[in-house]
């Protein structure tokens, strides 16, 4: 039997699979950083809203939701050191890894809102500065450093070699500082617990007011924009009787 030929205009199964595989890989590569970073930022927002309650009742959960410097210092004297260190290290590493992935796969929408401007990232992403940025990760990390390393030629494995010990070291320092400041932070945590309801309601009200101000500002700016200039219609020259004849 003669081999069957595929109809013209239709790609065979062997040709269709690579295209779908490439599309799937691209979607996963661009999707996981945005999903990871968005989930962690959303959890951080929840932690900020529930901070007055969780600071005294569930400090480890608060660290899991919002492992920021202020939270680690606030509850450092009220939690077991090793579990808090493990949770903070893992989640702080994941957040930095998410920003690294956003920059690596050019997912800029969420990243630029946090960085504010890409000029600093452009300067830091130069080849000569990448080695210094990697060593800086052993001390502290921020969004600009993560984005600069992500846009550069540093591999993710090499980034993690510096990021993981750096996140562990910085988290240990913040928790130790919180433990040393325990006599003062415990009073603050107790005050937050006593006024938790009012603080949560006030935080939600401030967030709603901020959203309303942003919406009104955008509408005012949109109303002040000049309307696009429309060119007047081109009038055709009058046709004389001599031209007709």
TrEMBL record:
Q: Does the keyword Membrane apply?
A: yes
- Record field: transmembrane: 40-64, 71-95, 132-150, 162-184, 196-216
Q: Does the keyword Aminoacyl-tRNA synthetase apply?
A: no
Which key words tag this protein in UniProt?
Membrane, Transmembrane, Transmembrane helix
Per its UniProt entry, which superkingdom is the organism in? Answer: Bacteria
Region Disordered, residue ranges: 224-245
Task: Tell me the protein's name.
Answer: TVP38/TMEM64 family membrane protein
- Source organism of this protein record: Parafrankia soli
Which lineage do the record's taxonomy fields give for this organism? Bacteria, Bacillati, Actinomycetota, Actinomycetes, Frankiales
């Amino acid at each position: 039997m003669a081999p069957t030929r595929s109809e013209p205009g239709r790609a065979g199964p062997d040709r269709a699979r690579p295209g779908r595989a490439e599309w799937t890989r691209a979607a996963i590569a661009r999707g996981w950083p945005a999903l990871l970073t968005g989930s962690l930022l959303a959890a951080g927002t929840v932690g900020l809203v529930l901070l007055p309650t969780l600071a005294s009742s569930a400090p480890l959960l608060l660290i899991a939701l919002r492992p920021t410097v202020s939270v680690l210092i606030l509850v450092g004297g009220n939690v077991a050191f090793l579990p808090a260190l493990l949770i903070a290290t893992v989640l702080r590493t994941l957040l930095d890894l998410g920003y690294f992935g956003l920059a690596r796969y050019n997912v800029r929408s969420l990243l630029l809102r946090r960085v504010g401007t890409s000029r600093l990232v452009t300067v830091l992403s130069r080849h000569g500065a990448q080695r210094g940025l990697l060593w800086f990760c052993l001390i502290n990390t921020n969004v600009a450093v993560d984005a600069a390393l992500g846009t550069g030629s540093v591999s993710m494995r090499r980034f993690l070699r510096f990021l993981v010990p750096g996140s562990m070291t910085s988290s240990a320092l913040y928790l130790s500082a919180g433990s040393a400041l325990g006599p003062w932070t415990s009073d603050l945590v107790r005050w937050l617990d006593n006024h938790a309801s009012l603080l949560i309601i006030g935080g939600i009200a401030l967030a709603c007011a901020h959203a309303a101000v942003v919406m009104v500002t955008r509408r005012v700016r949109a109303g002040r924009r000049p309307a696009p200039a429309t060119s007047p219609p081109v009038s055709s020259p009058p046709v004389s009787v001599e031209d007709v004849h």
